[in-house]
Predict the structure.
Amino acid sequence: MPVPGPVLPFDESRPSVRPYVLTGGRTRAPVDLALETLVGTRPGSVTEDPARRAVLERCGVACSVAEVAATVGVPLGVARVLIGDLVATGALQVLGTATAGAPGQALLARVLDGLRRL
């Protein structure tokens, strides 16, 4: 399945908006979101805000918080706040993390010790 391109490409004719305007001055998301947290749009989700609408459109296919920031064209902190707002309102759902189910640190340490003994 192809990955959608940038939703809000840079356009010199469009006036730029400071990041704090998009988040209402907030720097913390209402939910804790790691870079690799996967999020997806819930069916029927809509919003009037253009920045949040761009996030919803991008999350039509599950993607990470970092991917949203990169493709929508906003700083990572802004993406976290926007995504957190949408999760809090039920428009987005957290699907897990890209590292969920990855081997634990203890297992990796044992493997490394075994390799060193070779």
Notes: The mean pLDDT is 81. The longest strand covers residues 92-97. The CA atoms of residues 69 and 75 lie 6 Å apart. Residues 76-89 form the longest helix (14 residues).
